[in-house]
Amino acid sequence: MRIVLFGPPGAGKGTQAKRLIDTLKVPQISTGDILRAAKAEGTPMGKKAAEFMDAGKLVPDEVVIGIIDERTQKDDCQSGFMLDGFPRTIPQAEALGAMLKGRDQGIDHVVSLEVDDGVLVQRLTRRRSCPECGAIYHLDFSPPKTEGKCDQEGAALMHRADDQEEAIRERLNVFHGQTSPLKDFYKQAGLLREVDGAGAPDAVFSNVTQALGV
Ligand code: AP5
In CATH terms, is domain 2-26+79-212 a member of 3.20.20.80? Predict the structure, then answer.
């Protein structure tokens, strides 16, 4: 199964993708995670991407399209994948369609997590994540067992640079301006599955699996 997890910043794409791995047995491919890893390694691509990410802007299309083209051809993607945070612009969606068509493949479902902006800001300002394993926490809704430390291996949790209120507002503006038009794009293609993403993570997971029919 090849699916796109779609939604604004903080909608729960990463949270739901991590739960879906066990159900779908396909890898999560998060362009945000790949770009943050490149930034942490200090690669030329990571340094370039950091300027855009920290300001809450989109990284140029050609950079992320290249990442997805390469990543989706790896062995672990043979029986499918979950795209988390890609595509985010119409040119990215068109490039994805062309790339998959060239391999006689296509997207099966686009799951759109629907959450109001007020809730998103509350989720993002209090998010913490593990730089080692990628686990996602929320200081109020899903706190770590020990303050500031990952439950898995005890690594110090981080507060993302783009989870400051000003960058969050910019990310939401970018979503509404540049990314939300993709909903119509995928609706016209008959692939859009809109899901209520406002409840607790378990309830949202049940909405997502129902929408996917798994
Ligand atoms: P990216 O890393 O993709 O960030 P995003 O889309 O802004 O999404 P987030 O990771 O912030 O949120 P999420 O939906 O995964 O929510 P999460 O599950 O963590 O992108 C970062 C940047 O990289 C972009 O701004 C851009 O610069 C660049 N980039 C990436 N892809 C790009 C592309 N394709 N093109 C161009 N540039 C690109 O949950 C959030 C919080 O809420 C957590 O604390 C979680 O615990 C909590 N939570 C989740 N679900 C629930 C729930 N149901 N109830 C209560 N709390 C919940």
Answer: no
Tell how far the Cα of 168 is from the centroid of ligand 1, in angstroms: 10
| pLDDT tens readout for residues 66-93 | 999 999 999 999 999 999 999 999 999 9
- Residue ranges covered by each domain of the chain: 2-26+79-212
Whole-number Å distance between alpha carbons of 133 and 177: 32
Closest ligand 1 atom to residue 137 Cα is: 46
Ligand 1 pocket test, pick from 141, 174, 182, 205 with the greatest ligand atom count within 8 Å of Cβ, gives 141
Determine if the pTM surpasses 0.90.
yes
- Cα–Cα distance for residue pair 34/22, rounded to 1 Å: 21
CA 152-156-159 angle, 5° bins: 110
The catalytically annotated residue of 13, 18, 39, 128 is: 13
